[in-house]
């Protein structure tokens, strides 16, 4: 019978698990090898993966498991199931580092290899994740993420192919809406991304006074189609839009301390939609005591309507090289092009005015309705007939707390009223605007489709394009309608009879919408707009009494507040700065 003997058991005097250090022979002690974490679920991968060597002194995994090396799932030491590999965050003592300097190595042949015809790969590039893309040095394929995308060495960038002379478009610069004098002191600078985070909830306004006369809206224009188009008529009517300081009603209200801030809906809408603006503009701010007056300059950007301001390639004015400075380009003041930015702006202003004049019924029935007081700007010496326009002076409370008294008085405008409603009670008020088409094939059209062929059949696509190209303009119109308390916003679609003639136009259709609903479609936040107004007002109230100007940078999304002399933007100041014409005797 065989005998059985128990093996020797080495007791650990320290009380821990495993043998003691004194009982283990020296040849079995791994003195200089540190502990490397491992997991029982790890599998042995490649012993040496030379494909991971992509630069000098970059570690190459030797003997790592498949979850840590290339054999296992993804980058950053993660498994295919998304969980990190065991011990992936611990430095490995077995990691190999390059001992020799290989910075002198360079690839001589950088020419891309010819693609094979036929087979699973498309021409010039490999199929990537999410669909075909650009291979290295390859051609364009249908992109996975973001539509058409560009890969390494591809000729296109993310978002689409580069167009003709795109490098020159990026270098175009705009001039400021007002000449910045070196004597002006810049007080504040606000980026648009900071303005987009502001928010202030404002309650319903209080109506103070109503002035003017409004005519009923002609509903027959709501039934116009491209097949039953109507020509745009030229009507001689007078419509006033004076600045805040020239308004006698506002001056009277300011003498009674009706509010803290005074402005008009045209000026206020630009400030409330400032983050959407691309073209330059400026607002003159006058502080008198504890009151602020937001004014516009005569002949400034508030008197005209922009066209395709938010397009990827908006219309441009022709430039010429300055003879005194060859590196500087100046805008040519007189241009024969009918599709330049200035010409299109004047054309759009002409269309908006005449479309509003044409779409009202001036001969009863139904009759015109007078507000509580007559037009405050129409003098007794005027002979031309007044346009349909009503002014509503309304006060909004911008106070954050109940004890804070910050109110703004706004002069709002309405263009007509819906038949059967009573505008004197604030019902059925209408604001009328017009979008214009100049030439869908011209530069600056913004990819707009032909209205005559797409407006009836694909109205959604046409509207979406206009909402993209004229985001700022539509947002301002919507804010003006909301401020005036209008029930409807009528937008006409006016096009040229001939794309090469900017003097004759036709009305192709009319869209009617509620201002609040249209604001939601445009993603216009009234609370954000009121937050911008309150922030600008607080910045101006921190300054001493005087005159200031808020300028939108012509090429950057930035607002700047300047302190200007008291005689700036006045007739005396313009006469002093006027150049000598040689007629006066010295």
UniProtKB/TrEMBL annotation:
Residues 301-315 are annotated as: RNA gate. It is found in: Cytoplasm. Signal peptide: none annotated. GO terms for biological process: cap-dependent translational initiation; formation of cytoplasmic translation initiation complex. Pfam families: eIF-3_zeta (PF05091). Residues 121-158 have a biased composition (Gly residues). One of its GO terms (molecular function) is mRNA cap binding. Keywords: Cytoplasm, Initiation factor, Protein biosynthesis, RNA-binding. The keyword Transferase does not apply. Residues 1-24, 37-87, 114-172 are annotated as: Disordered. GO terms for cellular component: eukaryotic 43S preinitiation complex; eukaryotic 48S preinitiation complex; eukaryotic translation initiation factor 3 complex. Residues 1-11, 57-68 have a biased composition (Polar residues). Residues 163-172 have a biased composition (Basic and acidic residues). The RNA gate region regulates mRNA cap recognition to prevent promiscuous mRNA-binding before assembly of eif3d into the full eukaryotic translation initiation factor 3 (eIF-3) complex. Component of the eukaryotic translation initiation factor 3 (eIF-3) complex. Belongs to the eIF-3 subunit D family. mRNA cap-binding component of the eukaryotic translation initiation factor 3 (eIF-3) complex, which is involved in protein synthesis of a specialized repertoire of mRNAs and, together with other initiation factors, stimulates binding of mRNA and methionyl-tRNAi to the 40S ribosome. The eIF-3 complex specifically targets and initiates translation of a subset of mRNAs involved in cell proliferation. In the eIF-3 complex, eif3d specifically recognizes and binds the 7-methylguanosine cap of a subset of mRNAs. This is Eukaryotic translation initiation factor 3 subunit D. It comes from Polyporus arcularius HHB13444. The lineage of its organism: Eukaryota, Fungi, Dikarya, Basidiomycota, Agaricomycotina.
């Amino acid at each position: 019978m065989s005998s059985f003997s128990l093996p020797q058991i080495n007791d650990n005097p320290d009380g821990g698990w495993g043998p003691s250090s004194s009982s283990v022979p020296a040849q079995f002690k791994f003195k200089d090898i540190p502990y490397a974490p491992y997991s029982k679920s790890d599998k042995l991968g490649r012993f040496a993966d030379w494909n991971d060597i992509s630069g000098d002194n970059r570690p190459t995994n030797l003997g790592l498991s498949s979850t840590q090396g290339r054999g296992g799932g993804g980058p950053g030491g993660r498994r295919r199931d998304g969980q990190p590999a065991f011990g992936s965050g611990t430095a490995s003592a077995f990691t190999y580092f390059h001992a020799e300097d290989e910075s002198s190595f360079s690839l001589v042949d950088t020419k891309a290899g010819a693609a094979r015809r036929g087979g699973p790969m498309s021409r010039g590039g490999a199929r990537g994740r999410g669909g075909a893309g650009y291979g290295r040095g390859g051609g364009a394929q249908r992109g996975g993420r973001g539509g058409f995308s560009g890969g390494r060495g591809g000729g296109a960038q993310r978002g689409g192919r580069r167009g003709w002379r795109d490098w020159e478009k990026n270098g175009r610069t705009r001039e400021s809406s007002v000449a910045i004098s070196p004597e002006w002191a810049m007080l504040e600078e606000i980026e648009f991304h900071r303005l987009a985070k502001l928010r202030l909830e404002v309650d319903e306004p209080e109506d103070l006074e109503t002035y003017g006369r409004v005519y009923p809206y002609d509903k027959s224009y709501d039934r116009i189609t491209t097949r039953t188009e109507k020509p745009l008529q030229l009507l001689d009517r007078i419509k006033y839009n004076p600045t805040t300081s020239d308004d006698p009603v506002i001056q009277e209200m300011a003498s009674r301390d009706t509010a803290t801030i005074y402005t008009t809906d045209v000026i206020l809408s630009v400030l409330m939609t400032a983050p959407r603006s691309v073209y330059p503009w400026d607002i003159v701010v006058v502080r008198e005591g504890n009151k602020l007056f937001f004014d516009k300059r005569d002949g400034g950007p508030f008197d005209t309507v922009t066209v395709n301001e938010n397009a990827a390639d908006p219309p441009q004015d022709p430039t010429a090289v300055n003879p005194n400075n060859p590196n500087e380009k100046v805008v040519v003041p007189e241009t024969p092009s009918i599709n330049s930015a200035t010409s299109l702006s004047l054309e759009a202003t002409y269309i908006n005015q005449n479309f509003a004049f044409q779409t009202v019924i001036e001969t009863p029935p139904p009759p015109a309705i007078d507000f509580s007081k007559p037009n405050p700007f129409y003098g007794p010496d005027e002979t031309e007939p007044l346009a349909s326009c009503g002014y509503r002076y309304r006060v909004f409370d911008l106070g954050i707390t109940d004890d804070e008294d910050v109110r703004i008085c706004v002069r709002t405008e309405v263009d007509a009223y819906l038949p059967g409603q009573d505008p004197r009670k604030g019902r059925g008020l209408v604001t009328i605007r017009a979008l214009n088409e100049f030439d869908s094939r011209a530069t600056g059209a913004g990819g707009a489709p032909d209205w005559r062929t797409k407006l009836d059949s694909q109205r959604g696509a046409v509207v979406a394009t206009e909402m993209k190209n004229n985001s700022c303009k539509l947002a301002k119109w919507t804010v003006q309608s909301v401020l005036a308390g209008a029930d409807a916003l009528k937008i006409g679609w006016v096009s040229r009879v001939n794309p090469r003639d900017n003097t004759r136009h036709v009305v192709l259709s009319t869209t009617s919408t509620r201002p609040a609903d249209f604001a939601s479609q445009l993603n216009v936040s009234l609370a954000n707009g009121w937050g911008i107004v309150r922030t600008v007002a607080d910045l101006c109230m921190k300054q001493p009494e005087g005159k200031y100007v808020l300028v939108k940078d012509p090429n950057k999304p930035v607002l700047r507040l300047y302190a200007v002399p008291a005689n700036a933007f006045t007739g005396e100041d313009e006469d002093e700065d006027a150049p000598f014409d040689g007629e006066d005797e010295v």
